[in-house]
Protein backbone atom coordinates (compact mmCIF):
# COMPACT_ATOMS: atom_id res chain seq x y z
CA UNK A 1 0.00 0.00 0.00
CA UNK A 2 1.24 3.52 -0.72
CA UNK A 3 2.28 5.90 2.00
CA UNK A 4 -0.88 7.97 1.58
CA UNK A 5 -3.25 5.12 2.45
CA UNK A 6 -5.69 6.07 5.21
CA UNK A 7 -8.57 4.70 7.15
CA UNK A 8 -11.73 6.19 8.60
CA UNK A 9 -13.68 4.87 11.55
CA UNK A 10 -16.68 5.87 13.59
CA UNK A 11 -16.17 8.95 15.78
CA UNK A 12 -18.40 7.36 18.42
CA UNK A 13 -20.28 10.66 18.67
CA UNK A 14 -21.87 13.11 16.26
CA UNK A 15 -19.88 15.36 13.96
CA UNK A 16 -20.42 18.97 14.85
CA UNK A 17 -19.25 22.41 13.90
CA UNK A 18 -19.42 25.26 11.42
CA UNK A 19 -16.83 25.11 8.67
CA UNK A 20 -15.86 26.70 5.40
CA UNK A 21 -14.77 24.43 2.54
CA UNK A 22 -12.37 25.43 -0.26
CA UNK A 23 -13.46 27.54 -3.23
CA UNK A 24 -15.42 26.21 -6.17
CA UNK A 25 -13.17 24.32 -8.57
CA UNK A 26 -15.12 25.19 -11.73
CA UNK A 27 -15.24 28.89 -10.91
CA UNK A 28 -11.58 28.95 -9.83
CA UNK A 29 -10.35 27.56 -13.17
CA UNK A 30 -12.49 30.03 -15.06
CA UNK A 31 -11.47 33.02 -12.94
CA UNK A 32 -7.82 32.41 -13.82
CA UNK A 33 -8.60 31.88 -17.51
CA UNK A 34 -10.82 34.94 -17.84
CA UNK A 35 -8.28 36.97 -15.88
CA UNK A 36 -5.66 35.92 -18.46
CA UNK A 37 -7.94 36.96 -21.35
CA UNK A 38 -8.98 40.31 -19.88
CA UNK A 39 -7.37 43.69 -20.20
CA UNK A 40 -6.24 44.86 -16.75
CA UNK A 41 -5.74 43.15 -13.43
CA UNK A 42 -8.27 40.71 -12.03
CA UNK A 43 -8.37 40.18 -8.27
CA UNK A 44 -9.63 36.76 -7.25
CA UNK A 45 -10.55 35.92 -3.67
CA UNK A 46 -11.49 32.50 -2.32
CA UNK A 47 -9.59 30.72 -5.11
CA UNK A 48 -9.31 26.97 -4.61
CA UNK A 49 -5.62 26.24 -4.14
CA UNK A 50 -5.98 22.58 -5.06
CA UNK A 51 -3.68 20.79 -7.48
CA UNK A 52 -6.09 21.05 -10.42
CA UNK A 53 -6.43 24.82 -10.19
CA UNK A 54 -2.71 25.32 -9.59
CA UNK A 55 -2.16 23.58 -12.95
CA UNK A 56 -4.41 26.14 -14.60
CA UNK A 57 -2.53 28.97 -12.87
CA UNK A 58 0.76 27.58 -14.20
CA UNK A 59 -0.70 27.20 -17.69
CA UNK A 60 -1.94 30.80 -17.73
CA UNK A 61 1.57 31.92 -16.77
CA UNK A 62 3.02 29.80 -19.57
CA UNK A 63 0.58 31.49 -21.97
CA UNK A 64 1.87 34.91 -21.00
CA UNK A 65 -0.41 36.16 -18.21
CA UNK A 66 1.10 37.44 -14.97
CA UNK A 67 -0.34 35.33 -12.19
CA UNK A 68 0.53 36.16 -8.61
CA UNK A 69 -0.55 34.74 -5.25
CA UNK A 70 -1.07 37.70 -2.95
CA UNK A 71 -2.32 35.82 0.13
CA UNK A 72 -4.05 32.49 0.78
CA UNK A 73 -6.91 32.31 -1.75
CA UNK A 74 -6.17 35.83 -2.99
CA UNK A 75 -4.69 35.85 -6.47
CA UNK A 76 -4.01 38.58 -9.01
CA UNK A 77 -3.96 38.03 -12.77
CA UNK A 78 -2.70 40.63 -15.24
CA UNK A 79 -4.30 39.60 -18.52
CA UNK A 80 -3.22 39.85 -22.14
CA UNK A 81 -6.57 40.60 -23.77
CA UNK A 82 -8.65 38.35 -26.05
CA UNK A 83 -6.38 36.88 -28.72
CA UNK A 84 -3.27 37.95 -26.81
CA UNK A 85 -2.05 34.67 -25.34
CA UNK A 86 1.47 33.67 -26.39
CA UNK A 87 2.98 30.37 -27.40
CA UNK A 88 4.07 28.33 -24.35
CA UNK A 89 7.76 27.41 -24.33
CA UNK A 90 7.15 23.95 -22.90
CA UNK A 91 4.57 21.19 -22.58
CA UNK A 92 1.50 22.16 -20.52
CA UNK A 93 0.97 19.50 -17.86
CA UNK A 94 -2.64 19.59 -16.66
CA UNK A 95 -2.12 16.93 -13.98
CA UNK A 96 -5.43 15.25 -13.05
CA UNK A 97 -7.69 18.02 -14.36
CA UNK A 98 -10.11 17.35 -17.21
CA UNK A 99 -11.63 20.80 -16.81
CA UNK A 100 -8.25 22.50 -17.21
CA UNK A 101 -7.28 20.38 -20.22
CA UNK A 102 -10.56 20.75 -22.08
CA UNK A 103 -11.09 24.45 -21.45
CA UNK A 104 -7.49 25.22 -22.39
CA UNK A 105 -8.05 23.37 -25.69
CA UNK A 106 -10.75 25.96 -26.35
CA UNK A 107 -8.45 28.83 -25.44
CA UNK A 108 -5.61 27.53 -27.61
CA UNK A 109 -7.90 26.81 -30.57
CA UNK A 110 -8.50 30.52 -31.04
CA UNK A 111 -4.87 31.63 -30.79
CA UNK A 112 -2.21 31.16 -33.51
CA UNK A 113 0.09 29.15 -31.24
CA UNK A 114 1.50 25.65 -31.04
CA UNK A 115 1.16 23.83 -27.73
CA UNK A 116 1.35 20.32 -26.33
CA UNK A 117 -0.94 19.23 -23.51
CA UNK A 118 -0.38 16.29 -21.25
CA UNK A 119 -1.55 15.06 -17.84
CA UNK A 120 -1.30 12.24 -15.33
CA UNK A 121 -2.27 8.65 -16.14
CA UNK A 122 -5.93 9.32 -15.29
CA UNK A 123 -6.18 12.38 -17.54
CA UNK A 124 -4.23 10.69 -20.35
CA UNK A 125 -6.93 8.02 -20.38
CA UNK A 126 -9.86 10.44 -20.73
CA UNK A 127 -11.62 11.24 -24.00
CA UNK A 128 -10.62 14.54 -25.59
CA UNK A 129 -12.37 14.08 -28.93
CA UNK A 130 -15.47 15.61 -27.41
CA UNK A 131 -13.61 18.95 -27.55
CA UNK A 132 -11.11 18.47 -30.37
CA UNK A 133 -13.83 17.49 -32.85
CA UNK A 134 -15.94 20.65 -32.52
CA UNK A 135 -12.86 22.86 -32.11
CA UNK A 136 -11.33 21.52 -35.34
CA UNK A 137 -14.20 23.13 -37.22
CA UNK A 138 -12.93 26.59 -36.20
CA UNK A 139 -9.64 25.90 -38.01
CA UNK A 140 -7.53 24.55 -35.13
CA UNK A 141 -5.61 21.29 -35.60
CA UNK A 142 -5.22 18.61 -32.96
CA UNK A 143 -3.00 15.55 -33.07
CA UNK A 144 -3.30 13.11 -30.21
CA UNK A 145 -2.94 9.48 -29.27
CA UNK A 146 -5.47 6.83 -30.22
CA UNK A 147 -8.96 7.96 -29.31
CA UNK A 148 -7.78 11.58 -29.36
CA UNK A 149 -6.21 11.16 -25.94
CA UNK A 150 -3.41 13.20 -24.35
CA UNK A 151 -0.62 14.00 -24.98
CA UNK A 152 -2.17 16.23 -27.58
CA UNK A 153 -0.50 18.69 -29.93
CA UNK A 154 -2.55 21.78 -30.74
CA UNK A 155 -2.10 24.24 -33.56
CA UNK A 156 -4.47 27.08 -32.93
CA UNK A 157 -6.23 28.95 -35.73
CA UNK A 158 -4.89 32.32 -36.89
CA UNK A 159 -8.35 33.45 -37.96
CA UNK A 160 -10.80 31.17 -36.13
CA UNK A 161 -14.28 30.67 -37.50
CA UNK A 162 -17.26 30.97 -35.17
CA UNK A 163 -18.81 27.61 -34.31
CA UNK A 164 -22.42 26.50 -34.27
CA UNK A 165 -22.54 23.35 -32.17
CA UNK A 166 -25.16 21.11 -30.60
CA UNK A 167 -23.69 19.25 -27.62
CA UNK A 168 -24.04 15.48 -28.09
CA UNK A 169 -23.40 14.91 -24.34
CA UNK A 170 -24.38 17.24 -21.51
CA UNK A 171 -20.94 18.66 -20.69
CA UNK A 172 -20.12 22.11 -19.32
CA UNK A 173 -16.52 21.46 -20.26
CA UNK A 174 -17.35 21.00 -23.93
CA UNK A 175 -19.73 23.97 -23.93
CA UNK A 176 -17.06 26.11 -22.29
CA UNK A 177 -14.32 25.03 -24.70
CA UNK A 178 -16.48 26.06 -27.67
CA UNK A 179 -17.35 29.41 -26.07
CA UNK A 180 -13.71 30.14 -25.20
CA UNK A 181 -12.69 29.48 -28.81
CA UNK A 182 -15.59 31.71 -29.87
CA UNK A 183 -14.09 34.65 -28.00
CA UNK A 184 -11.35 34.88 -30.63
CA UNK A 185 -13.64 34.32 -33.65
CA UNK A 186 -15.34 37.02 -35.66
CA UNK A 187 -19.13 36.75 -35.52
CA UNK A 188 -21.54 34.76 -33.40
CA UNK A 189 -20.65 31.45 -31.75
CA UNK A 190 -23.73 29.38 -30.99
CA UNK A 191 -23.93 26.42 -28.62
CA UNK A 192 -27.06 24.41 -28.02
CA UNK A 193 -27.34 22.09 -25.04
CA UNK A 194 -30.25 19.65 -24.81
CA UNK A 195 -29.76 19.47 -21.01
CA UNK A 196 -28.64 22.60 -19.14
CA UNK A 197 -25.19 22.20 -17.58
CA UNK A 198 -23.40 24.46 -15.10
CA UNK A 199 -23.33 27.99 -16.46
CA UNK A 200 -20.27 29.47 -14.75
CA UNK A 201 -18.64 30.25 -18.11
CA UNK A 202 -21.69 32.20 -19.26
CA UNK A 203 -21.89 34.07 -15.94
CA UNK A 204 -18.24 34.96 -16.07
CA UNK A 205 -18.35 36.01 -19.73
CA UNK A 206 -21.02 38.56 -18.79
CA UNK A 207 -19.12 39.59 -15.68
CA UNK A 208 -16.05 40.39 -17.80
CA UNK A 209 -18.12 42.38 -20.34
CA UNK A 210 -18.86 39.96 -23.20
CA UNK A 211 -22.22 40.12 -24.98
CA UNK A 212 -24.12 36.87 -24.56
CA UNK A 213 -27.69 35.79 -25.24
CA UNK A 214 -29.16 32.74 -23.56
CA UNK A 215 -32.50 31.25 -24.56
CA UNK A 216 -33.94 28.71 -22.16
CA UNK A 217 -36.74 26.32 -22.99
CA UNK A 218 -37.30 23.64 -20.37
CA UNK A 219 -33.94 21.91 -19.85
CA UNK A 220 -32.67 23.07 -23.27
CA UNK A 221 -30.39 26.11 -23.60
CA UNK A 222 -29.13 28.04 -26.63
CA UNK A 223 -26.17 30.33 -26.00
CA UNK A 224 -24.98 32.92 -28.49
CA UNK A 225 -21.73 34.78 -27.94
CA UNK A 226 -20.53 37.80 -29.89
CA UNK A 227 -16.92 37.20 -30.84
CA UNK A 228 -13.86 39.36 -30.23
CA UNK A 229 -15.17 41.37 -27.29
CA UNK A 230 -12.81 43.37 -25.16
CA UNK A 231 -12.91 41.58 -21.84
CA UNK A 232 -12.22 43.91 -18.92
CA UNK A 233 -10.66 42.74 -15.67
CA UNK A 234 -13.29 42.22 -12.97
CA UNK A 235 -13.03 41.05 -9.36
CA UNK A 236 -14.10 37.46 -8.73
CA UNK A 237 -15.30 36.17 -5.37
CA UNK A 238 -15.23 32.37 -5.48
CA UNK A 239 -17.95 30.71 -3.38
CA UNK A 240 -17.34 27.51 -1.42
CA UNK A 241 -17.61 24.48 -3.69
CA UNK A 242 -20.94 22.66 -3.30
CA UNK A 243 -19.23 19.53 -4.64
CA UNK A 244 -16.76 19.69 -1.72
CA UNK A 245 -19.42 20.70 0.82
CA UNK A 246 -21.20 17.48 -0.15
CA UNK A 247 -18.72 15.33 1.82
CA UNK A 248 -19.04 16.84 5.33
CA UNK A 249 -22.78 17.38 4.79
CA UNK A 250 -23.45 13.77 3.79
CA UNK A 251 -21.22 12.60 6.65
CA UNK A 252 -23.39 14.63 9.06
CA UNK A 253 -26.55 13.05 7.66
CA UNK A 254 -25.14 9.56 8.23
CA UNK A 255 -23.35 9.78 11.60
CA UNK A 256 -25.90 9.71 14.46
CA UNK A 257 -26.01 12.86 16.58
CA UNK A 258 -24.36 15.10 13.96
CA UNK A 259 -25.07 18.68 13.03
CA UNK A 260 -22.69 20.44 10.63
CA UNK A 261 -22.94 23.81 8.89
CA UNK A 262 -20.92 24.66 5.80
CA UNK A 263 -20.78 28.43 5.28
CA UNK A 264 -21.02 30.34 2.00
CA UNK A 265 -21.74 27.35 -0.24
CA UNK A 266 -22.34 28.06 -3.92
CA UNK A 267 -26.01 27.41 -4.65
CA UNK A 268 -26.11 27.98 -8.40
CA UNK A 269 -29.32 26.10 -9.36
CA UNK A 270 -27.37 24.10 -11.95
CA UNK A 271 -25.21 22.66 -9.13
CA UNK A 272 -27.73 21.82 -6.42
CA UNK A 273 -29.13 18.49 -7.63
CA UNK A 274 -27.56 16.64 -4.68
CA UNK A 275 -29.28 18.84 -2.12
CA UNK A 276 -32.66 18.38 -3.85
CA UNK A 277 -32.14 14.61 -3.95
CA UNK A 278 -31.06 14.34 -0.32
CA UNK A 279 -34.17 16.29 0.73
CA UNK A 280 -36.31 13.85 -1.25
CA UNK A 281 -34.57 11.10 0.72
CA UNK A 282 -35.74 12.77 3.94
CA UNK A 283 -32.53 14.63 4.81
CA UNK A 284 -32.68 17.46 7.33
CA UNK A 285 -30.81 19.97 5.21
CA UNK A 286 -31.45 23.66 5.81
CA UNK A 287 -30.17 26.68 3.89
CA UNK A 288 -29.86 29.94 5.80
CA UNK A 289 -28.48 33.34 4.94
CA UNK A 290 -29.14 32.92 1.22
CA UNK A 291 -27.48 35.79 -0.64
CA UNK A 292 -25.77 36.72 -3.90
CA UNK A 293 -21.99 37.13 -3.76
CA UNK A 294 -19.89 37.93 -6.81
CA UNK A 295 -22.82 37.14 -9.11
CA UNK A 296 -23.42 33.62 -7.70
CA UNK A 297 -26.08 32.52 -5.18
CA UNK A 298 -24.58 31.32 -1.91
CA UNK A 299 -25.91 30.27 1.48
CA UNK A 300 -25.00 28.44 4.67
CA UNK A 301 -26.08 24.80 4.54
CA UNK A 302 -26.74 22.82 7.73
CA UNK A 303 -27.11 19.05 7.75
CA UNK A 304 -28.31 17.09 10.78
CA UNK A 305 -28.38 13.33 11.20
CA UNK A 306 -31.39 11.92 9.35
CA UNK A 307 -32.96 8.60 8.59
CA UNK A 308 -32.98 8.37 4.81
CA UNK A 309 -35.24 6.55 2.38
CA UNK A 310 -34.49 5.32 -1.14
CA UNK A 311 -35.45 7.47 -4.13
CA UNK A 312 -35.63 7.29 -7.90
CA UNK A 313 -33.50 10.08 -9.39
CA UNK A 314 -34.21 11.03 -13.01
CA UNK A 315 -31.36 11.20 -15.52
CA UNK A 316 -32.31 14.80 -16.33
CA UNK A 317 -30.92 15.77 -12.92
CA UNK A 318 -27.48 14.30 -13.63
CA UNK A 319 -25.81 17.47 -14.98
CA UNK A 320 -26.68 19.36 -11.77
CA UNK A 321 -25.02 16.75 -9.55
CA UNK A 322 -22.64 14.93 -11.87
CA UNK A 323 -19.72 14.97 -9.40
CA UNK A 324 -21.85 14.04 -6.40
CA UNK A 325 -22.97 10.51 -7.35
CA UNK A 326 -20.26 8.61 -5.43
CA UNK A 327 -21.14 10.31 -2.14
CA UNK A 328 -24.86 10.07 -2.92
CA UNK A 329 -24.37 6.33 -3.43
CA UNK A 330 -22.77 6.21 0.03
CA UNK A 331 -25.85 7.97 1.44
CA UNK A 332 -28.10 5.47 -0.38
CA UNK A 333 -26.23 2.65 1.37
CA UNK A 334 -27.74 3.89 4.65
CA UNK A 335 -31.26 4.48 3.31
CA UNK A 336 -34.33 2.30 3.72
CA UNK A 337 -35.60 1.12 0.35
CA UNK A 338 -34.32 1.13 -3.19
CA UNK A 339 -32.40 4.03 -4.68
CA UNK A 340 -32.19 4.15 -8.45
CA UNK A 341 -29.81 6.73 -9.93
CA UNK A 342 -30.62 7.02 -13.62
CA UNK A 343 -28.59 8.08 -16.62
CA UNK A 344 -25.04 7.86 -15.25
CA UNK A 345 -23.22 7.10 -18.52
CA UNK A 346 -21.00 10.19 -18.17
CA UNK A 347 -19.60 8.85 -14.89
CA UNK A 348 -17.63 6.32 -16.91
CA UNK A 349 -15.33 9.07 -18.26
CA UNK A 350 -14.55 11.03 -15.10
CA UNK A 351 -11.24 10.96 -13.19
CA UNK A 352 -11.90 7.21 -13.04
CA UNK A 353 -14.70 5.04 -14.37
CA UNK A 354 -16.73 6.36 -11.46
CA UNK A 355 -19.66 4.07 -12.04
CA UNK A 356 -17.46 0.99 -11.68
CA UNK A 357 -15.41 2.58 -8.87
CA UNK A 358 -18.58 3.45 -6.92
CA UNK A 359 -19.94 -0.09 -7.24
CA UNK A 360 -16.56 -1.42 -6.09
CA UNK A 361 -16.51 1.03 -3.16
CA UNK A 362 -19.91 -0.20 -2.02
CA UNK A 363 -18.96 -3.85 -2.54
CA UNK A 364 -15.80 -3.40 -0.45
CA UNK A 365 -18.06 -2.09 2.32
CA UNK A 366 -20.52 -4.97 2.15
CA UNK A 367 -23.20 -3.12 0.16
CA UNK A 368 -24.56 -4.77 -2.97
CA UNK A 369 -25.29 -2.47 -5.89
CA UNK A 370 -26.02 -3.21 -9.51
CA UNK A 371 -25.60 -1.36 -12.77
CA UNK A 372 -28.59 -1.71 -15.11
CA UNK A 373 -27.74 -0.02 -18.39
CA UNK A 374 -26.68 3.45 -17.24
CA UNK A 375 -28.54 3.23 -13.92
CA UNK A 376 -27.07 2.46 -10.51
CA UNK A 377 -29.41 0.58 -8.18
CA UNK A 378 -28.83 0.25 -4.44
CA UNK A 379 -31.42 -1.64 -2.37
CA UNK A 380 -31.05 -1.39 1.42
CA UNK A 381 -33.01 -1.83 4.62
CA UNK A 382 -31.92 1.30 6.51
CA UNK A 383 -29.27 -0.52 8.58
CA UNK A 384 -25.75 0.90 8.86
CA UNK A 385 -23.51 -0.24 6.03
CA UNK A 386 -21.11 -2.96 7.26
CA UNK A 387 -17.85 -1.28 6.09
CA UNK A 388 -14.65 -3.10 6.88
CA UNK A 389 -13.04 -3.11 3.43
CA UNK A 390 -10.33 -1.32 1.51
CA UNK A 391 -11.39 0.93 -1.35
CA UNK A 392 -9.26 1.43 -4.45
CA UNK A 393 -9.40 5.11 -5.44
CA UNK A 394 -8.09 4.84 -9.06
CA UNK A 395 -6.52 8.35 -8.87
CA UNK A 396 -9.98 9.78 -8.15
CA UNK A 397 -10.32 12.34 -5.36
CA UNK A 398 -14.07 11.96 -5.05
CA UNK A 399 -13.90 8.18 -4.69
CA UNK A 400 -11.32 8.65 -1.92
CA UNK A 401 -13.45 11.18 0.01
CA UNK A 402 -16.65 9.16 -0.49
CA UNK A 403 -14.94 6.06 0.92
CA UNK A 404 -13.74 7.99 3.97
CA UNK A 405 -17.27 9.32 4.58
CA UNK A 406 -18.46 5.71 4.37
CA UNK A 407 -15.89 4.76 7.00
CA UNK A 408 -17.10 7.41 9.44
CA UNK A 409 -20.65 6.07 9.31
CA UNK A 410 -20.32 2.32 8.76
CA UNK A 411 -20.16 -0.41 11.39
CA UNK A 412 -16.52 -1.18 10.78
CA UNK A 413 -13.72 1.16 9.61
CA UNK A 414 -12.95 1.60 5.92
CA UNK A 415 -9.50 2.01 4.38
CA UNK A 416 -8.58 3.71 1.12
CA UNK A 417 -5.42 2.88 -0.81
CA UNK A 418 -4.45 6.45 -1.67
CA UNK A 419 -5.61 9.79 -0.32
CA UNK A 420 -3.05 11.85 -2.26
CA UNK A 421 -5.51 12.86 -4.97
CA UNK A 422 -7.83 14.53 -2.45
CA UNK A 423 -5.58 17.58 -2.84
CA UNK A 424 -6.78 18.06 -6.41
CA UNK A 425 -10.03 19.55 -5.11
CA UNK A 426 -10.13 19.59 -1.30
CA UNK A 427 -6.81 20.32 0.41
CA UNK A 428 -7.30 20.03 4.16
CA UNK A 429 -10.17 17.53 3.89
CA UNK A 430 -8.81 15.07 6.44
CA UNK A 431 -8.00 17.73 9.03
CA UNK A 432 -11.41 19.33 8.59
CA UNK A 433 -13.27 16.06 9.06
CA UNK A 434 -11.18 15.21 12.12
CA UNK A 435 -12.01 18.65 13.52
CA UNK A 436 -15.73 17.95 13.11
CA UNK A 437 -15.27 14.59 14.84
CA UNK A 438 -13.15 15.99 17.68
CA UNK A 439 -10.35 13.47 17.09
CA UNK A 440 -8.28 11.59 14.54
CA UNK A 441 -11.03 9.42 13.07
CA UNK A 442 -9.31 9.59 9.69
CA UNK A 443 -5.65 8.68 9.94
CA UNK A 444 -2.87 7.17 7.87
CA UNK A 445 -2.56 3.40 7.81
CA UNK A 446 0.41 1.44 6.59
CA UNK A 447 -1.55 -1.45 5.23
CA UNK A 448 -0.88 -3.68 8.22
CA UNK A 449 -2.50 -1.55 10.88
CA UNK A 450 -6.25 -1.21 11.15
CA UNK A 451 -7.94 2.08 10.41
CA UNK A 452 -8.65 4.22 13.45
CA UNK A 453 -11.93 4.54 15.25
CA UNK A 454 -14.12 1.51 15.17
CA UNK A 455 -16.24 2.59 18.11
CA UNK A 456 -19.40 0.49 17.61
C1 LIG B 1 -16.90 20.83 -14.83
C2 LIG B 1 -17.88 20.14 -15.50
C3 LIG B 1 -18.21 18.72 -15.22
C4 LIG B 1 -17.63 18.25 -13.88
C5 LIG B 1 -16.25 18.72 -13.65
C6 LIG B 1 -16.16 20.23 -13.71
C7 LIG B 1 -16.63 22.21 -15.24
O1 LIG B 1 -17.68 17.93 -16.26
O2 LIG B 1 -17.68 16.84 -13.81
O3 LIG B 1 -15.78 18.30 -12.37
O4 LIG B 1 -15.97 22.94 -14.48
O5 LIG B 1 -17.08 22.61 -16.33
P1 LIG B 1 -18.52 17.74 -17.63
O6 LIG B 1 -18.93 19.06 -18.05
O7 LIG B 1 -17.59 17.10 -18.61
O8 LIG B 1 -19.67 16.83 -17.24
Automatic annotation (TrEMBL):
It comes from the Bacteria. InterPro entries: Enolpyruvate_Tfrase_dom, Enolpyruvate_Tfrase_sf, EPSP_synthase, EPSP_synthase_CS, RNA3'P_cycl/enolpyr_Trfase_a/b. Its main location: cytoplasm. It catalyses: 3-phosphoshikimate + phosphoenolpyruvate = 5-O-(1-carboxyvinyl)-3-phosphoshikimate + phosphate. Monomer. Catalyzes the transfer of the enolpyruvyl moiety of phosphoenolpyruvate (PEP) to the 5-hydroxyl of shikimate-3-phosphate (S3P) to produce enolpyruvyl shikimate-3-phosphate and inorganic phosphate. This is 3-phosphoshikimate 1-carboxyvinyltransferase. The lineage of its organism: Bacteria, Pseudomonadati, Pseudomonadota, Alphaproteobacteria, Acetobacterales.
Amino acid sequence: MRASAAGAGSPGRGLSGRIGVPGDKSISHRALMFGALAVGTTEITGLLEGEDVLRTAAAMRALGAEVERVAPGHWRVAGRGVGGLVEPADVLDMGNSGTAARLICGLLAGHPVFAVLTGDASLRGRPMRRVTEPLSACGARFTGRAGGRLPLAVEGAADPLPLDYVLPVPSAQVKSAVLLAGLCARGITRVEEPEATRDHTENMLRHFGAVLRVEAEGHRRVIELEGQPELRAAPVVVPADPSSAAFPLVAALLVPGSRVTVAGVGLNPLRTGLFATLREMGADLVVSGARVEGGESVGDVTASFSELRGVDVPGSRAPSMIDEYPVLAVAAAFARGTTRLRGLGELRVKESDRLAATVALLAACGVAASVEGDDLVIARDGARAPGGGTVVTHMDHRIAMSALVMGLASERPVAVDDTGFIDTSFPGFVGMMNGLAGGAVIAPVDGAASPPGGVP
